[in-house]
């Protein structure tokens, strides 16, 4: 029983930690792209990487202040979004998908390449750039604090607090935008571009605005991740994260303001809870070693998430917050 | 005034202005109209080796209903796409109100006041009926990113637009469905919604691509009424249709296309007797039973000639009581 409680506590910590914030921000961006505008961005992680490395390179390599690094990261993400959108947003939806997925993988390989080592430090990545940010914490970051049955370091708490504030502000921004006529145009573009064109809206411009906005959320997510781990390593930014963020979004409910946030919390909770519980059961013999060894756990937890997602799509295809009527329309 | 005893019918008076203005025109392809809203000149569009549209000269009368008919593959929809910026021609110029529309994108054409509907209805399924309508309104402050964040800048406009949308929805009998997703509407209701949505932008020209396709007969009548209303409000209507009864009923002028070319134009009654049109629909070398067919045709031609003479004569059958006065202002 105490195993289960422990696993619950560790799961909750994970669901509230910086990784959940990272996925929440990625998914908020994807929600703007895919949920509201219908843009297929399969390379959200590229924007996150630019955000994280924006800070890391600016501070560690160029010796710039932390906040300048934040701006560098956001600007880099905006520029990348414009570069990706310029040629593809006039074309059919799948072109953006192809270009983003290729870019995400290409950028990661570029950042870890030998020729980029002078700037990105190659596969070893950069570290020691978040000191001035952690120093801003109003409490002692060296101490550990007990919270909800688990122990948090002061630095972790500070990153989580700032991160969730960022998530809340992002949600507020999305909520404000999506209830406005601007958001209505985006949703209409998702339904049918040509109809929106025929009504005198510059579809290309709206799609570009949405792409840039979602990219900025992605960059913020990457910054939280880089600051949370205290390092920026190209291989942290595997494109699998993009698809986990999609899973979080669909779990929570697409085109809902809080969908991506709740989805990320639940996703991270399930992953960590299953991991901890299975390991505990294996170590005290509840699950025989012959059936499942502790080295398999890392994979098994994703299987569990996959089963969970399948059940969700069967019984609640709209996600946790979605509107069932809205999803059922697609059945026609 | 003395000639018009029933003053209540003043709305009907402007209704057929275009028809009267067009009555004296010769029935030939490319004829100049007294007051053209759109002028098409030497527009061609080819897809590989296929010439989809090749229109030498075409003028569309302002304030009238122009029917565009032709067999399948005649290039009607392609011409629509060209006129509204959804497709760009290989050569040619076309103007609206004297402004060239060449190289304009669809949204720019729409902002000038030329809105269209689509052959396959494009209701925005996961938006409510009212949201669909509001999308049609032009120059919305809240559609700019920064102003969207400050509701104060667009709330008043949104309220006005909502009222206008509700008026239109009442007119099209969709007001009870305003909060339903457009995706659950029936095919006919979608056609109505698409037309109502187009009207939200206060268009000058409405281009309807097969507005009656797939609509049940009862709703067809109501749609017809709405199209006639557009004319009475002074809008120019261009529509593609296959149902000849509909075309005859509401058009002031009919343009017939076949194989990308305009092969005939004239008032609706002229079309069914036009040899080029019959050939286009039935094939040029159809071996018809000679005697009856020819008899009929000669008869029809004679009748048409008589009708034309009568139409030209003052106080003829086609001219109403007010017409002869309004005809020459």
Automatic annotation (TrEMBL), chain A:
Pfam families noted in UniProt: BPD_transp_2
Membrane topology: Multi-pass membrane protein
Molecular function GO labels: branched-chain amino acid transmembrane transporter activity
GO cellular component terms, semicolon-separated: plasma membrane
Transmembrane residue ranges: 12-32, 39-60, 66-86, 157-178, 210-228, 240-258, 265-286, 298-315
Keywords: Cell membrane, Membrane, Transmembrane, Transmembrane helix
Main location, first listed in the record: membrane
Compartments reported by the entry: Cell membrane
Name of the molecule in the record: Branched-chain amino acid transport system permease protein
Protein species of origin: Klenkia marina
UniProtKB/TrEMBL annotation, chain B:
Gene Ontology molecular function terms on file: ATP binding; ATP hydrolysis activity
Keyword set, alphabetical order: ATP-binding, Nucleotide-binding, Transport
Domain of life: Bacteria
Domain (ABC transporter) ranges: 38-284
One Gene Ontology cellular component annotation held by this UniProt entry: plasma membrane
UniProt KW 4Fe-4S keyword: no
Gene3D superfamilies, alphabetized: P-loop containing nucleotide triphosphate hydrolases (3.40.50.300)
Parts forming coiled coils: none
Classification via InterPro entries: AAA+_ATPase (IPR003593), ABC_AA/LPS_Transport (IPR051120), ABC_transporter-like_ATP-bd (IPR003439), ABC_transporter-like_CS (IPR017871), BCA_ABC_TP_C (IPR032823), P-loop_NTPase (IPR027417)
Region (Disordered): 305-329
Cross-referenced PROSITE patterns: ABC_TRANSPORTER_1, ABC_TRANSPORTER_2
PANTHER family reported in the protein's UniProt record: CONSERVED COMPONENT OF ABC TRANSPORTER FOR NATURAL AMINO ACIDS, CONSERVED COMPONENT OF ABC TRANSPORTER FOR NATURAL AMINO ACIDS-RELATED
Protein name: Branched-chain amino acid transport system ATP-binding protein
